[in-house]
Specification:
This is Lipoprotein. With 123 residues, the protein is an alpha+beta fold. It has one helix spanning 2-21, and strands at residues 30-38, 45-49, 62-63, 66-67, 70-73, 86-93, 109-118. It has 1 helix and 7 strands. The longest helix has 20 residues, at 2-21.
């Protein structure tokens, strides 16, 4: 009887552990960005993050994991690839790839566009 009780308690403890570990990761926050133009590699676009996205008191702070300023992406939807276009997007850091540049003075953080939160001109 004691062994059955121990097995049931072990099963319940494991069930609670599995349930608590299956929570979904939170979605990245939407932030304002402006399409600056094409980066040095084809298919990559430079985005300028709006300074109001940063959480620090001074400009150039961090917006989540992303440093305020400029980032580059290769999965910007085609409808939003015009330079000067302002939009709200949720971004995450891209650890898989980055643009291949022969010679460049500045290398921007590669990101993935998760979603376009608002179309241009709505903020």
């Amino acid at each position: 009887m004691k062994s059955i009780l121990c097995i049931v308690l072990l099963y319940l403890a494991l069930s609670v552990l599995v349930i608590s570990c299956t929570e979904a990761d939170p979605e990245p926050a939407c932030m304002r960005a402006e399409v600056v133009g094409i980066d040095c590699d084809s298919g990559w676009y430079i985005l300028k993050l709006d300074e109001s996205n940063s959480t620090g008191a001074t400009g150039g702070g961090f917006a989540g994991q992303l440093q305020g300023g400029f980032v580059t992406t290769d999965n910007l939807p085609q409808a939003y690839q015009q330079p000067g276009l302002k939009l709200k997007v949720s971004l995450e850091i891209n650890n898989e790839s980055s643009p291949r540049c022969l010679a460049t003075a500045v290398i921007y953080t590669p990101v993935k566009v998760v979603t376009v939160c608002e179309s241009p001109g709505k903020y």
